[in-house]
Amino acid sequence: MKRLIPLIVAAALSACGADVASSAATAAALKKQELEQGKKTQDMAQQKINQAVEQMNQSAQNRENAADK
Question: Would you say the pTM of this structure is higher than 0.85?
């Protein structure tokens, strides 16, 4: 009986450790996914900004050309 209790305690504690490790791995995977999604969002926003700047430059160029005529 004296040997059985430490074995039960050790088994219970090792299961908790596996749970913690599994939870940490899951949290890390979720964080990685969030970071990747954030990067995609940032890239899309940068593309839209670049398009808007290009359109503004074209409009300014068109106005200059119209003023020169």
Answer: no
